[in-house]
Amino acid sequence: xxxxxTLIDRTLVxxxxxxxxxxxxxxxxxxxxxxxxxxxxDVHGVADNxxxxxxxxxxxxxxxxxxxxxxxxxxxxxxxxxPSAKIYxxxxxxxxxxxxxxxxxxxxxxxxxxxxxxxxxxxxxSIILLLIANYLPKCKQNYTIGIKLPWTLxxxxxxxxxxxxxxxxxxxxxxxxxxxIILNWNVAFIFFIGLALMLIVPxxxxxxxxxxxxxxxxx
Length: 219
Hints:
By secondary structure, the chain is mostly helical. 66% of the residues lie in helices and 5% in strands.
């Protein structure tokens, strides 16, 4: 049985501080930022949404830090959590590098650095998905991480088989994503199809497995 959760622990504190670390860079370059900063880009790397420099510089890191706190509380409060699982550790640390990456990238682009955001961001996402794919098959039943469906939560066999399939699927598609970026294929189209498959295939598989094996098990 899992020990009683400690909501405020070392990981929560460290990851939240890392989420807020971009504030230092923001303070240093704030005066050099334009009044409107691009915070979203289309598939061609063209800015299509802007925010005030105050929000871009300070609001984004703070928002991600708050999201991190909520994530940490949700994960540590899960009665079925497995603190020894690598995917649990990965999930607890995922927002810290995301804040460092997105906040720094946003400000560097605003300062005029020629960054190919349409390639850098998909590559970052692909690497994260590849890491998830590596640990997803080993993910045990829980309420916060993984493919949480009525059928997978009712059957450990369904959960295990669905996550094994998803792990292989995520791995293959993530590698295709990376190749498409390196070889300059149609990244936007490949990502659209790939992400749709990653979402739909495991759900359909688990549902049809449930139809064939409807019994609830707790093996």
